[in-house]
Model the fold of this input.
Amino acid sequence: MGYLISIATFACIWAVLALSLNILTGYAGQVSLGHAAFFGIGAYASAMLTVKAGWSFWPAFVAAILITGVVGGFLGLPSLRVRHDFLVLATMGINFVVIAIFKYVSFFGGALGIIGIKKPALFGWTLRGPWFLALAALYLVLTLWISAYLSRTWAGLALTALREDEDAAEAVGVSVPRFKIYAFAISAALAGGAGSLYAHFLGSVFPDHFAFVESIGIMSMVVFGGIGTLRGPVVGAFILKALPEYLRFVGDYRYAIYGGVLVLMMLFQPQGILGDNSWLWNKIRRRIND
Amino acid sequence: MPEKTNRNTPLLDIRNLSRHFGGLKAVDGVSFQVNEGEIVGLIGPNGAGKTTLFNLISGFLKPTAGEIYFRGLPIHGKRPNAIARLGVGRTFQIVKPFGELSVRDNVLAGMGHNIYPSLQAFLHVYHTPTAIARANDILENVGLAAYADARADTLPIGLQRRLEIARALALSPILLLLDESAAGLTHQEAEDLAALIRDLRDRGITILLVEHNMRFAMNLCERIVVLNQGRILAEGTPEEIQTNPAVIEAYLGHSGVVRREA
Ligand SMILES: Nc1ncnc2c1ncn2[C@@H]1O[C@H](COP(=O)(O)OP(=O)(O)OP(=O)(O)O)[C@@H](O)[C@H]1O
Ligand SMILES: [Mg+2]
Done:
């Protein structure tokens, strides 16, 4: 039971990561392979604020979201200068640099990471097991709501416009640089919150938890489920995160799965298993309509 | 509604404008003006610098030298989105639809120009009844109402050109820059487009258009500016241009368009 709850908690956290990357890549078209960096920044911010500065979880959680959002906005600056394919490389680079900073700057605990991170408490009660899962699920629902609402706002329309054609977006009054930075900041902020939850759930953070392969993993969840949709990234995260954790023996091949999924989806179903007009989604819709 | 331009200042004032690409002088010391309420044609052979001039006016290119004033305000050096929000709408010669969006949403995207700069853009939903009604009006106006729900990239190229106009109209522009909107149209379609452009002018929109179809330009425009190799070759009424020896020479030298189509 406890094992399942912990898998479900991970799945919720990764669903948030996938949804947040979806805002950046699915909505705004900015392909990032460094998303785990934002995850890590949120985790480290929350860990440092609670363990080293003695804050309690809740303000640290909010601060982690804000800090990661601001840092994410700055780390989005390369997107203003480089073309799409180079942005992929630049974001990969950012991921490596962020990990190196965690690893080699002793202020951040070095390779030993940060340990002794406490679970959140509410009115004197420590949130653990199902209660922590409830917190993670609540944050997932919040992220879903933000994603859904954003896509219906003028800002969401501006992001879609710049994804489709940057010149045409400028020609209708969208400041492309500004909205790219917004996309990075929002995406990073949400991932930062996921990082905070992760740190407090696990009780410790190490640089390698946020390595480049994790970025690949998050991207493969988004692509597997269906980029640009809400259902896709969530389902992708639950399948590709929870299943390997559950089937322990598969867990060892996790990275091979992430890589394989990316290659296969790109080849055969680039819109994802649940993307609009995908084979499975069309089938499901026909079932529902009958 | 923006305040009226001073009667004596031209709506668009281009002074000594140049844009060089390495050694190529795509636009080279061009000066001319467009007054409020005019339909002005910009013609010239392929590679004359017409699109480059549009890109300079709308901010997609920075001038190598020279100045551009819109309603007396210097706009050279401003970003395209800022110029768009001042009331300069444009179409692209090579169409750039928001392909995955519906035709209506393409127009709605143009209607957000006032809200994009503010954080309010994150609060307000764009599919409101009033916004949709206005988008439908614009689509009706350019004859795209039947395609409102189609994905923009499924339209044939002629209709995508019209969508370019619809999207620019969504800005409520004061000045509209049309880059070869009549390209590839049948005679009847071109007539319809001319009627639409006159109608827009009658509703107070000033129009500067690039055109290869001579008959179309001569019939529609009150004034014509001829560009050749980045420089102004002639400027005047369609009659003056048609009989201008330098223009005839330049065109015959290239393709003989004047003789064939005028
Ligand atoms: N970004 C650029 N870089 C280099 N050269 C350019 C660029 N844009 C335009 N040119 C060159 O500048 C010249 C003018 O091009 P422009 O597109 O303005 O011509 P045009 O009058 O619009 O021609 P057309 O009638 O074929 O559309 C051409 O020689 C073109 O190759
Ligand atoms: Mg051109």
